[in-house]
Amino acid sequence: MTAPLLTLEGVHTHIGAYHILHGVDLEVPRGQLTMLLGRNGAGKTTSLRTIMGLWHASQGRIHFDGKDITAGATPDISQLGIAYVPENMGIFADLSVKENMLLAARAARSVDDIDTKRLEWIFDLFPAMKKFWLHPAGKLSGGQKQMLAVSRAIVEPRKLLLIDEPSKGLAPAIIANMIAAFRELKQTDTTILLVEQNFNFAKQLGDTVAVMDDGKIVHRGQMAELAENEDLQTRLLGLSLAAHH
């Protein structure tokens, strides 16, 4: 067994007076897609933000690829090869799709510096990015903005993608496109930690799963096992797939 790419050990996070994470223990296996599930308010987004250094752990350790990043600054953590796609997508509405992509490609000074093969690969994943290349990002539909947010995160090779609720508010056809794109991403040895509320989305993509409740990890295992066990789904998430087709 290779060592996990990312580990959180006993991580606590306070935001002001609020104690959000209560000793999170999490392993993200290298080269796999790990789903982070849980009810609203369980601490999923806080976990991603803490990994990214946007909020700092008040206790515990975070290791990424053999390095301790617990107290790291967000730009330094990003330089190690981690990209974060927040729930609000973080795109620049007044800039074109092209300009958004160029900003995300840190090594590029102009679009000509972006790896052409990689750009074509992204256009294959998300044809709307090519179609609306010169359009202001703010004019894109919700689904297209989400595609742009993911495209920005993968414009350069990354070791780890942290993605917060990519299917939220999207039409079924767009979700199907997202699932196909993430499946392709999984073939590129990119490790992904993905927060999701849509269980159907999660079960189609996840290799491993961690379920959060009240700021702690309460279940870890294979996604396929959780997808087949309705009793466990109901106990952990208050749902069963039978009621959520």
From TrEMBL:
Listed GO MF terms: ATP binding; ATP hydrolysis activity; branched-chain amino acid transmembrane transporter activity
Family the entry assigns: Belongs to the ABC transporter superfamily.
PROSITE patterns: ABC_TRANSPORTER_1, ABC_TRANSPORTER_2
Gene Ontology biological-process entries: L-amino acid transport
SMART domains: AAA
Record domain ABC transporter: where: 6-239
Database matches in InterPro entries: AAA+_ATPase, ABC_transporter-like_ATP-bd, ABC_transporter-like_CS, BCAA_Transport_ATP-bd_LivF, P-loop_NTPase
Listed name of the protein: ABC transporter ATP-binding protein
